């Protein structure tokens, strides 16, 4: 993952060329993120559930992370060597760039945190065929929050460190948080595909829905690792070439909204895929078997109008099958 750059002195025309390319791809990524928001808002308007609102918030946070990148493009490329030194004449300019990148880290890290929780709720559709104890949900949430706080402290969201002493630590922390999100997302995604394959007879006759879901999940994984490869290559292959390093970082990051696009395709096709194939048109919301929604974040997986069970709280109730995550999404 990128660290705060300290570019080399380069011809002004070359800086302008790289600046134009870098800005263009950053704007492309921002546009893709906005399209994801519009699609999610439209669906949330039609199905007003907590899960859909939370999904819109996640996408909005991620789209916002492109703003500091757009503002820091040319200042980053124009910084001279050694600008991060307090003795440098460009030190104040470097501080402005560093503050913008710190805002990016905060927005990016928080958006990924929201997405991980959404991934967990998304995975709950597997509970109809893949049973696991509710304590695993709580353990997962605690581990994720602890890991997020540790990484945030390391890469300087909640604290301020001299750049020269922690630049490597910031890069490793950002990379570790990204890898954690990818591993969690892909492990749960492929587990879902496997379990869905084993129950393919239940979803017979829904080949189009099956293809959309599987294609979306595979696309999320492929795009994620391609973008990550570009980010790693930017730092390993061009450690002393700030222009190319910055360009490859923005190129990889600009296509990360496609990962969210794939997630949206999955979420909004899950209901039709998991619905009972033998249900009549008069009973389209009949599900077999119902998805269990007890445990962590179950309130996000149910309709906000569902009454709580008189014998339990919001985290222990069992809502009707038509009000579970699959139906709401």
UniProtKB/TrEMBL annotation:
Region spans: Disordered: 279-329
TM annotation in the entry: 20-41, 53-71, 103-123, 135-158, 170-193, 213-235, 247-268
UniProtKB keywords: Membrane, Transmembrane, Transmembrane helix
Ranges of compositional bias, category Polar residues: 291-308
Protein name per Swiss-Prot or TrEMBL: Uncharacterized protein
Native source species: Geranomyces variabilis
Organism taxonomic ancestry: Eukaryota, Fungi, Fungi incertae sedis, Chytridiomycota, Chytridiomycota incertae sedis
């Amino acid at each position: 993952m990128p660290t705060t750059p300290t570019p080399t002195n380069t011809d002004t025309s070359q800086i302008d060329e790289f600046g134009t390319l870098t800005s263009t791809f950053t704007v492309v990524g921002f546009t893709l993120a906005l399209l994801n928001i519009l699609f999610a808002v439209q669906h949330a308007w039609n199905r007003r559930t907590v899960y859909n609102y939370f999904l819109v918030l996640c996408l909005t946070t991620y789209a916002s992370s492109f703003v500091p990148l757009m503002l820091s493009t040319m200042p980053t490329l124009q910084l001279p060597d050694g600008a991060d030194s307090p003795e440098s004449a460009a030190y104040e300019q470097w501080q402005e760039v560093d503050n913008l990148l710190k805002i990016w880290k905060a927005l990016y890290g928080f958006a990924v945190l929201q997405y991980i929780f959404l991934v967990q709720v998304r995975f709950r559709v597997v509970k109809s065929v893949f049973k696991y104890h509710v304590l695993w949900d709580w353990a997962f949430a605690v581990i994720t929050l602890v890991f997020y706080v540790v990484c945030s402290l390391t890469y300087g969201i909640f604290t301020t460190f001299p750049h020269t002493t922690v630049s490597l630590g910031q890069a490793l922390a950002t990379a570790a948080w990204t890898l954690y999100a990818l591993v969690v997302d892909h492990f749960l995604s492929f587990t879902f595909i496997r379990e869905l394959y084993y129950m393919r007879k239940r979803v017979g006759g829904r080949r189009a829905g099956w293809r959309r879901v599987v294609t979306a999940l595979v696309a999320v994984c492929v795009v994620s690792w391609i973008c990550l490869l570009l980010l790693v290559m930017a730092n390993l292959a061009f450690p002393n070439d700030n222009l190319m390093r910055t360009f490859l970082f923005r190129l990889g990051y600009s296509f990360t909204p496609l990962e969210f696009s794939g997630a949206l395709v999955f979420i909004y096709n899950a209901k039709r895929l998991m619905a009972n194939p033998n249900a009549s048109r008069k009973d389209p919301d009949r599900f077999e078997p119902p998805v269990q929604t007890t445990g962590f974040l179950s309130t996000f997986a149910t309709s906000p109008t569902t009454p709580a069970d008189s014998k339990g709280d919001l985290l222990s109730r069992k809502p009707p099958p038509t009000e579970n995550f699959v139906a709401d999404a």
